[in-house]
Amino acid sequence: MIDSLVKSTVFGFRNADKVINTDDKGRIFADVGQFTNAIKHAAELDNKIGRGAQAAVSAMSQATKGSKILTLANKGVNWAANNVNPLLVGAAGYRVLIADDKASALKREAVGMSSMFMVEGFMKDLFKSPAYLQFKNKISNKYLKTGLSILEGIVFVCGSIAGSTAGYKIADACMSKNTKTESKVPDNKVNITEQNTVNKAEAADDYEKEFFIPGQDKEMMA
Fold it and tell me: Rounded to an integer, what distance in angstroms lies between the CA atom of residue 209 and that of residue 126?
């Protein structure tokens, strides 16, 4: 619960920063979902924060009953909360659409997003593994258990960021390598042409030398 709250909150602020300060506006819908999840997870906490969040959720639920617009908005927000990953993929699609080189952008986003989801899947499996759960259940101190849950959320966020960053860097390196290879093709063709010219010149020289008699100052005419 606490780890989910940490994840949703950190991701929410991180994506909000990108929406506000960059051209990556496609993240806004995923950002709404992440903040909604953060509020829902906070409402599950048995403390003042949880009771405050629960009161806010209840007040919103009551307000939506008298307005069709608010009802639709509430449904949209809840849908976003349940579909954060598809919305992140949609944000990647938006980045492809606004890119100048759409083909390269598509490859870059495919590798970056795949890497991110792969690392996230690995961490989810790790935190659900019997060995880890057994270790976690052995902790009796509630403060240590809370601290561990917070650490889980932070590790998950860091792993997700590291996974996407690594994926994007790998994609950039591969595309850069391909670009360099393609740029060398014309030079190779020029070199081959130049080499053929040199070979022909050498062949001509060899042909003339066949009729050259050492010790004489000129070639013999056939």
Answer: 78
Tokens found for residue 222: 């056939």
The set of residues, in sequence order, having a beta carbon less than 8 Å from that of 195 and lying 6+ positions away, is none
Q: How far is CA 39 from the centre of its chain?
A: 26
By three-state DSSP, how is residue 80 classified?
helix
The closest of 161, 156, 158 to 112, measured between CA atoms, is 161
In contact, 35 and 80? CB cutoff 8 Å? no
24: tokens are 């990556």
Distances (CA, A) of 218 to 39, 52, 69, 202, 208: 99, 108, 103, 19, 11
| pLDDT band at 200; cut points 50, 70, 90 | very low
For 128-141, where are the alpha helices, taking DSSP H only? 130-137
Indicate if the alpha-carbon torsion angle 4, 94, 20, 60 is positive or negative: negative
Query: What pLDDT score was predicted for residue 181?
Result: 66
- What pTM does this model have? 0.73
> How big, in percent rounded to 5, are the helix, strand and coil portions of the chain?
85, 0, 15
pLDDT in tens, 8-32: 989 999 999 999 998 888 999 999 9
Residue 40 exposed, middle or buried by CB count within 10 Å (0-12, 13-18, 19+): middle
